[in-house]
Amino acid sequence: MPVPFFAFALGTGMDFATFLKMEVLLAGLALGLMTTILTGFTGIIVFKIFREKSQIAPVSEASTAGNAVGTPAAIAAAAAVASGSGMMSAADAQAYQGLVQIATAQISISTLTTAILCSIAVIIIDNWQKKRGIYGKQEDHTAGKPINV
């Protein structure tokens, strides 16, 4: 619920040109691609360990959550507090502050990328499963396992 409110506040302090920098754009796209592939693959392995037939759930969860966009600002704020209490130097805290805009842009791009890639991956996995007789939408509610139709 609070995501639109803090995201608006973060966005008003950012420069749109940051999103158009090639290194920021490519890093955000790479982050999104790696998140989808690595998280989805890890989830599939875990599902296989527990002998789940349908692999749709782990693939559909392989995304960057929208609230992750606030993480760089939260870390910079924590660094400022640590600097004020003597746990960190002011120069180190300032270094975190300098990364907020770029990191926020990269995570925003990753969030958009994974929103698209997860949808595509779910369609691909669902079609692959259907060819093997596994229908992820039809579950045996007594056992919690998908039914082979």
Describe this structure in words.
The protein is mostly helical and 149 residues long. The protein has a domain of 90 residues. Helix content is 69%, strand content 7%. A hairpin with a 4-residue loop joins β1 and β2. The mean pLDDT is 85.
Keywords:
about 150 residues; mainly alpha; 2 strands; about 70% helix; about 5% strand; two-stranded antiparallel sheet
The number of distinct helices, counting runs of at least 4 residues, comes to 6
Radius of gyration: 20 Å
Distance between the termini: 39 Å
State the total count of DSSP E strands.
Answer: 2
Strands of the largest sheet, in order across it?
Answer: 1-2
Binned strand content? 5-15%
Structural class designation:
mainly alpha
Instruction: Give the helix level as a range of percent.
Output: 55-70%
Order of helices and strands: HHHHHHEE
Indicate the overall shape: elongated
Mean pLDDT: 85
Task: List low-pLDDT spans.
Answer: none
Main beta sheet strand tally, sense and closure: 2 strands, antiparallel
Summary, kept brief:
It contains 6 helices and 2 strands; from the N terminus they run H-H-H-H-H-H-E-E. By secondary structure, it is mainly alpha-helical. The chain has a domain of 90 residues.
Break the fold down into its secondary structure elements and pairings.
Elements: H1 3-12, H2 17-20, H3 22-49, H4 56-60, H5 71-84, H6 90-131, E1 134-140, E2 145-148
Antiparallel strand pairs: 1-2
